[in-house]
Amino acid sequence: MQTAVEQRPAYHFCPARNWMSDPNGLIQWRGRYHLFYQYNPNGAFWGTPHWGHALSSDLVHWDDAPTALTPGAGPDEDGCWSGCAVVDRGVPTLVYTGVDGGNVRREHVCLARGDNRLVAWRKDPANPVIGDPPPHLSVTGFRDPYVWRENGEWRLVLGSGIRGSEGAVLLYRSTDLLSWEYLKPLCTRPGSLTDPLWTGSMWECPQFFPLGDRHVLMVSIWEGDRLHHVAHAVGRYRDSTFEPESWARLDVGGEYYAAATMLDERGRRLVMGWSWEARSRRAQEAADWAGVQTLPRVLTLSPDRTLRVEPIPEVAVLRGAHRRAGPLQVPGGTEFVLPGVDGDCLEIVLEMWSAGEAGIVLRRSPHREEELMVRFDWRTQFLAIDRSRSSIDPDAYGGVHGGTFPLAAQDALRLHIFLDRSIVEVYAGDTLCATERIYPLRHDSTGMSFRAMDAPLSVASVDVWHLNEGGAEHGNRAKEQRDEPALE
Ligand code: DQQ
């Protein structure tokens, strides 16, 4: 009897069991990185959100810490929903969404104060510090506070939407995190707009921060009871007024949401996102785990004020066996299977060019029963992640995702790909990334090939590394092995 193919990622963070979604409260405190996350301890489905907690010294190896927030009697009795972490006069403080009201859901802003190891958290007796939306606004939501320091005061934005028409982020100010004054919507955008992208009528998990000589607003688009994608705007921010200059998707893959950022002690702006399961709820609950965090990505602003997104270089610490090939010529309409590549936890860096459409095939079984194709069309400049044949499992979703990647017709495409069993992250150049979930069932779906669809393909070089396992939950860093003092 064949054992089931292991689908749990080996080096992306996911809890040992149960449901995980939004990353929350990212912070580096006294050298250690802290990741909090929406967590349901009762099963691999969304419900009664707690704040799970993990910490790392390198953003690659994660160790579990005790649950940080648990719903209790009062403004968060129905859940501790998403939020952020700040340091208030030396005290680590979580600013989160408390939910109560049963079927008539009410969302509030609440605080919790931490000890100097960020392990024990005490809810502030002043909760909720923001009880209800501004009375004159009819909003579709009021959650996911993101807080920053500005001119010696605090600023806070909340995800919201003006009922029936547009996504919105509401701006508040405070001197002490306890009493808040509503200022105005920091940004709104009609849900009817689609050029250059659609941003719906309810914005979740806002993030707002300076980058280069601009500011960046990120929002996760919720509409019609569905999670869609993360949009970001680059623009000018002055006197509490934000003027977006451009809008774009943050990730063009099928499963990327609730992006959360942090400024680390090296001054890098880092972002992590939640990748949900692209398979049936039945399959999800049978697996008994759901939800993966993407690799942390470094955000910078290019001279033309396009957002640059790159995987953190620290991931290289996981590299094992390395294989290099190229230059290769693949005739149009043919495929070249790369010999000696056999894996489901790989890092791939390649440069290729074609006059037509061509790409790389991963998780490929010997007779193509299963395969994932990452292909680019130099005529349309469209990068496609095609998972329509990635699994023989009827519970696994198919489809093609992707986006336009501006590249001159004569220029080579540089791809950087991280494959980790059921999650794939594709980076094109330093401005486009796509997160996709796949669930191959065959044990021999571990091959790789290059495919030239309709014109010859030139592969200048391809590097493939086998990546080792990362986090504590993957068994390779049992608690007694880690190099920092035990938390509990
Ligand atoms: N998930 C949280 C909310 C947030 C949503 C609840 C986004 O706070 O708006 O688990 O995925």
What does this structure look like?
With 488 residues, the chain is mainly beta. The chain is built from one helix and 35 strands. The chain has one helix at residues 281-287, and strands at residues 18-29, 32-40, 50-56, 63-69, 79-88, 91-100, 106-114, 121-123, 139-150, 153-162, 166-174, 181-190, 203-211, 214-223, 226-238, 241-249, 257-263, 269-275, 289-290, 292-293, 297-301, 307-311, 319-325, 328-330, 335-337, 345-354, 357-364, 372-377, 382-386, 400-404, 413-420, 423-428, 432-437, 447-452, 457-467. The strands form seven sheets. Strands 23, 24, 26, 31, 32, 33 and 35 form a seven-stranded antiparallel beta sheet that branches. The chain has a six-stranded antiparallel beta sheet with strand order 25-34-27-28-29-30, with no helix packed on it. Strand 11 and strand 12 (181-190) form a beta hairpin. It is globular. 2,5-dideoxy-2,5-imino-D-mannitol binds at residues 21-22, 38, 49, 81-82, 97, 143-144, 204-205, 220, 227, 257-258.
